[in-house]
Amino acid sequence: MAAETGTPTTLTLKSNDDELFSVAESAAILSVTIRNMVEDGCAGGVIPLDNVDGKTLASVITYMNGISAIPADEEKKKSYRDKFLSDKDFETLADMVLAANYLNMSCLMDAVSAKIAQVMEKKSVGWVRRKFGIENDYTPEEEAAVKEEHKWTFEGVETDDDN
Amino acid sequence: MQKKEDFNINYRALPYDLVFDVLLHLPEEDIYDNAMLVCRRWSHIIRSRDFVNAHRARHSTPGLLILDYSLHQKGKKTLGFCGNETRQNRDCRFASCNGLILEYDNFSKRAHKITNPEINQRFVVPPIYPQMPYHRFSSIAYSAASMEYKVVYIYDRDEDASTLRCVIATVGVDNSRRDVCTQHLSPEAKGQLYRNKTTTTEGFAHWTDAKTHTLVLTLNVETETFTQYPVPQGQDNYGDKYYLSTGKSLTLFDSGSNFFMEVWEMKLETGEWTKMYKIDLEAQKCNFEHFRSKGCSFPFALKPVGWLKYREVLVLRFSHMTRFCVAYNVLTKEFDYFKL
Predict the structure, then answer these.
(1) Chain A touched by B242 (CB under 8 Å)
(2) In this complex, is the C-beta atom of B16 within 8 Å of any C-beta atom belonging to chain A?
(3) Using 50, 70 and 90 to split pLDDT, how confident is the model at B127?
(4) Per-residue confidence (pLDDT) for residue B245, from 0 to 100
(5) Where is the SKP1 component dimerisation domain positioned along the sequence (chain A) (predicted)?
């Protein structure tokens, strides 16, 4: 949109730990945040991304390049996303979802959220708390009450009462 | 709140809307077995109205619940609790709200039961009295303000209309129940409450009458008040009328002929009716001929049974015995058949 000439424009992105990355504008504008900056004309020099570290940004740029190389085929894009996320650990995924949110990339965000949920499946409450860095703020009574409530909602299929 | 052991921990404390997005992808079992127990904030997210709606929209297999006395299906899954026995010997009654089914059996005077066909689980609602009175058409509705399901009991003693009462009980909270005042209702409205089955549109239960067709009696389960709303007087007083819930509003099908009907929608708060569409399948009549059964003396017609997708796809059944239904897209006017 902003590029009037036919030659591909390259943008320079800067992570919050001062790493610099070159990326094709056509791939970078998958991020609505970056696109807005480009459209507002503030992309002349280096685009500082204060909420993303270098490691995560490198990963996001790999994704941007990969996905923008795929023609408009939702199936193929989806399988690229799945493959891209398949080897990422929880910490990387957590960083990515924050970055995708900050960069306003809804497709990546949705894919990463789904992946995080997939990793969480069948894990214990303790595991989830540890990974998310959450402290249990329930009192033992409250915790028991929540369990009890759940039991109520999803009692197994009862056999018919006889009388 | 966060531990200070290392600064990395902070980034994992995802903001509210990101946790919301992640939890949205979790299956129901994990939500209730785990996520709910993680912390107060998560349980708060899970209980929020937005989350419940979004999660349901994402995880529910689209299905149609047909409440008919001879036929109970959800999607392609037949519900296990209703066999021939029910139809022939028992006075079994149903109501439904948000995909949950309220079921009760007047013959054996058993307790009311709530079934979630999605996860195939069932819950027994304790009886309101040890000696169960004669129940009319009970109803189930959802109070969004308190996030509770309410069961509305209509009952009388010894089949005497003057003993008619309406009682609301809150599901799963305690055994408290409250009487709803029915004194101000017109005799006709009381008759409707006494005789007719209900339709639920989330927080509202409606009693309608396909024959007299003059008013809709609506109970708001949050304010626990009854209101009588007039019904638009359509084209033909002799045509059949059908009322269907869309979940959030009530639609009326006013049939002018066997294959033609006008569709109206009622605003729940005001009782205002708006004419939405005309469904005219007269021209397709010949296509339907092979669903007609020869020996049947009833007029051969189409009856609406439910919205598959509101304002778009409607499911209709034939008045003659057949397992085939018609799915009709009211926008494109295309239709297709499917077999139950």
Answers:
(1) no
(2) no
(3) low
(4) 84
(5) 108-152
Chain centroid, CA B102 distance in Å: 9
In chain B, what residues touch A153 (CB-CB under 8 Å)? Answer: 32, 123, 172
- Per-residue pLDDT, averaged over A41-64, amounts to 88
> What's the pLDDT score for residue A3?
44
In this structure, whether the domain defined by A10-122 belongs to CATH 3.30.420.40 is answered with no
Residues 6+ apart with CB under 8 A from B70: B87
Cβ atoms of residues B55 and B292 within 8 Å? no
Q: Is B173 on the interface with A (CB under 8 A)?
A: no
- How long a stretch of residues is chain A? 163
